[in-house]
Each structure stands twice: as C-alpha cells, then as structure tokens.
Design a protein that fits this description.
The protein contains seven helices and seven strands, in the order ααβαβαββαβααββ. It is α/β, with parallel strands linked by helices.
Length: 243
C-alpha cells in the first residue's frame, strides 16, 4: 500500500506519512478482534449501516454479489446477507477473519455464499480468482487508510461494469468529540485520517477513480448511544470503462 499524501480533513495528523498503517491496523485488530463486538455502539452502528446501505442500493437476494472490504468481524455482512446472493468479506486482520467465519459457521449457511478471507488487495489481475462484484461496501474503515485514493481505485477494479461502490464513514468531527464518543479508538497509530470526510472530498475521490452518479446521504443517527454522524456515499462504475 503506498503512502501517497491524501488531501482533506485530518491532513495535519498525517505528517508521519511513512508510518505503516497497514501493519499497525493488522496488529491492532488481531489483538482486539475477540472483543470488538462488545464495544459499546458497535452492534448498533452496524445495524444503522445496513439500513443505510439498503436504502442506497436495491439489493437482490437472487443475484447481488457483494464484497465487504475491511469487513472486521462481519457485523454488517451478517445484517446484509439475507438480502443478497453472496458476500465475500476481505480484511488484513486474521483475527477479524476468524471471528467473521465463526459467525458464518453459526449461521449454518454455505461457505461459497458467505465467508471471509485475509487478503491485502493490490488491484492486480488474478486476485480473488478474478472475481468481480455487483456491489462493494466499506463501512467505518476509510479513516484507517493512508491513501484513500489508492484504496478507492483498487476497489473500483473489483467492480463489474455497472457495479456500485458504497462507503460509510463519519462526517468531519473534532478530535475531542471523537475521543469522547469512542475513547482510545482513534490512536494515530491506526487512524490515518481521523477528522472525517467532507462530501466534496468524497465526491472528488469517487470521480477520480472513474465513478459516476455520485450520491451522498446521511446515515440515520444513533438512538441508543452517542456516535459520530455518518454518511453513505455511492458511486457507479460506468458500463464502458477504462478503469
């Protein structure tokens, strides 16, 4: 993963651009994977995320194939699975993948329609056995990536022509507010872009990766527990595309 400089919110935290966020996140989540679902707000946030994704895209149980990138323990995948044909979870943390696949085993569904693998995607030919997807989702993970431009380009390369990228992350939020909502979760070691994302920044990011039909909507606010304000952004890969 390159460490090209990203523009936009959180830039001033980004002076240490040679820090290896990929390894730091992998180590952090390998250690904390078994406790993740117990974080206050994690389950509720995943439920709100599923609601927002379903509102943003007409998933079809008989046909829609999905990749969830940076899938974590699979809370969002599990919520979405009843509405899609298949989901592949991808994460760099083996600890998270193990928790995800335990969850799938407990559901008793066929592994070819719902499972996760550990992979660090590069957007190269032949990755994931050449699979392409109708929809790729990435929820509450973009602020961990040192180059959101590169990640977006890579994800778009795994979309079928006409496929849709859906990102959920938080709107611009002060460091103090984030720390008060999720104490200790925004360490500089694992969060490359802590400040959240302005709509224009996300739109530029999507258009820069060749996506069209940009839509940006609010995710329903948390009712039970305090959380940051989230957005869902959607972009479509053109049917004829040089991307």
């Amino acid at each position: 993963m390159s460490h090209s400089h990203t523009h936009g919110p959180g830039e001033h935290h980004h002076g240490h651009s040679h820090h290896d966020y990929t390894n730091a996140n992998q180590e952090h989540y390998d250690k904390t994977a078994t406790e993740y679902d117990a974080i206050p707000g994690a389950v509720e946030r995943s439920q709100r995320s599923v609601e927002a994704l379903r509102d943003a895209y007409p998933f079809d149980k008989s046909s829609t194939t999905v990749m969830e990138f940076a899938c974590g323990t699979g809370l969002v995948s599990k919520g979405l699975f009843p509405y899609v044909r298949s989901i592949l979870g991808v994460d760099i943390s083996q600890g998270m993948i193990d928790q995800y696949n335990k969850r799938v085993d407990a559901e008793g569904v066929p592994a070819d329609s719902f499972h996760a693998i550990r992979a660090e995607l590069k957007g190269e030919d032949g990755e994931l056995d050449g699979k392409k997807f109708d929809v790729i989702i990435c929820c509450s993970a973009y602020h961990h990536f040192s180059s959101v431009e590169e990640i977006t380009r890579i994800l778009v390369s795994f979309l079928k022509p006409g496929g849709t990228l859906l990102i959920i992350d938080h709107k611009p939020t002060s460091r103090e507010e984030m720390e008060s909502i999720w104490p200790g979760k925004f360490s500089d070691q694992v969060v490359a872009l802590p400040g959240g994302f302005e709509e224009e920044v996300v739109q530029k990011l999507f258009e820069g990766a060749g996506l069209v039909d940009f839509v940006h909507k609010d995710v329903p606010s948390a009712k039970v527990i305090r959380d940051m304000e989230l957005f869902v952004a959607k972009g479509v890969k053109p049917l004829t595309s040089g991307v």
